[in-house]
Design a protein that fits this description.
Layout (H helix, E strand, L loop, with lengths): L1 H25 L17 E6 L6 E3 L5 E5 L7 E4 L1 E3 L7 E6 L5 E5 L5 E2 L6 E7 L4 E3 L8 E10 L15 E4 L1
Antiparallel strand pairs: 1-6, 2-5, 3-4, 3-11, 6-11, 7-10, 7-12, 8-9, 9-11
């Protein structure tokens, strides 16, 4: 009987060990993942042309404005000033980077002073609607920027300028 009892106890121990090993194996699972990355070209922005409002004559009694649209051939609307025949251009910036990537455009939110009190440029606009998609054709990545020039009633004759920043970033 002792032998039979030892055989039964041994078999029960082996069965318990097998059950524990089986349960342990089912409680853990392993899988392998993959890491990947797509590197794209850095975004760039280059200025190809500045805003040129042309030659403006103040009226001497009240301030005026000149609105210049954001286009390859901009529309120029003077109010309270006289415009002489001269070149008028919107600023042109070219975006570069990886074709097909979208970007956001940021224009100045505040006025740029041109060196004389009241001689300011503001209300910057873009034909790009503040966003775009980079094209494989470089010329399709041009952004035209227009603005409004504020002219005091009296200002000394001269050439005036001021810098403004435009930026782009990938979406």
């Amino acid at each position: 009987m002792t032998t039979l009892r030892n055989i039964i106890l041994g078999a029960a121990s082996l069965a318990a060990l097998a059950a524990a090993t089986s349960a342990s194996a089912q409680a853990t699972a392993t899988a392998t993942g993959t890491a990947s990355v797509t590197i794209i070209a850095p975004i760039t922005l280059n200025k190809n042309a500045d805003i040129a409002f042309g030659k403006v004559v103040p009226n001497g009694s009240t301030a005026g404005t000149v609105e210049l649209t954001a286009a390859a051939s901009p529309t120029v609307t003077p109010t309270g000033v006289t415009l002489l025949t001269s070149a008028k251009t919107a600023a042109v910036f070219r975006v570069g980077g990886t074709a097909g990537q979208t970007y956001a455009l940021t224009l100045p939110a505040s006025a740029t002073n041109l060196g004389v009190t009241g001689l300011d440029v503001d209300t910057f606009t873009s034909a790009a609607a503040n966003s775009g998609t980079i094209s494989a054709t470089a010329a399709n990545n041009d952004i035209y920027v227009g603005a409004t020039l504020h002219v005091p009633a009296t200002v000394a004759a001269g050439v005036y300028s001021g810098a403004f920043n435009v930026s782009v970033n990938y979406n």
